[in-house]
Write a structure and sequence with these properties.
By secondary structure, this protein is mainly β. Helix content is 0%, strand content 58%. The chain is built from no helices and eleven strands. Strands 2, 4, 5, 6, 9, 10 and 11 form a seven-stranded mixed β-sheet that branches. The radius of gyration is 13 Å and the shape is globular.
């Protein structure tokens, strides 16, 4: 079993920055993909950014140029640096870890961007 714990959410003004962190613990296969997703009450959960063990990244169009995903494999931790935040970035942000057919979610952290 894998446990994911997110931190770093909060309230920020438009144009500001936040850094999210997610620590994974438990039985973690060496090769995996970690990522960040977000969900609002009106929308389905959507991918924000993902990163493989080898460091390959992928971003949603809405995140390109503003957000940066990174990871520390030794600490099983993934980060999301969010800059130039917009009110439409307001959502609950979830950490995800995928390894083969298995996938795990964190409990989510609220990000609120005021205009």
């Amino acid at each position: 079993q894998v446990r994911l714990v997110e931190s770093g959410g909060g309230l920020v003004q438009a144009g500001g920055s936040l850094r999210l962190s997610c620590v994974a613990s438990g039985t973690i296969f060496r090769l995996n993909t970690m990522g960040w997703y977000r969900q609002t009450q009106a929308n389905q959960r959507e991918v924000v950014a993902t990163i493989t063990t080898g460091g390959s990244t992928d971003y949603a169009d809405s995140a390109k140029g503003r957000f940066t995903i990174s990871r520390d494999n030794a600490k099983n931790t993934v980060f999301l640096q969010m800059n130039s935040l917009k009110p439409e970035d307001t959502a609950v942000y979830y950490c995800n870890l995928r390894s083969g057919p298995l996938g795990y979610w964190g409990q989510g952290t609220q990000v609120t961007v005021s205009s």
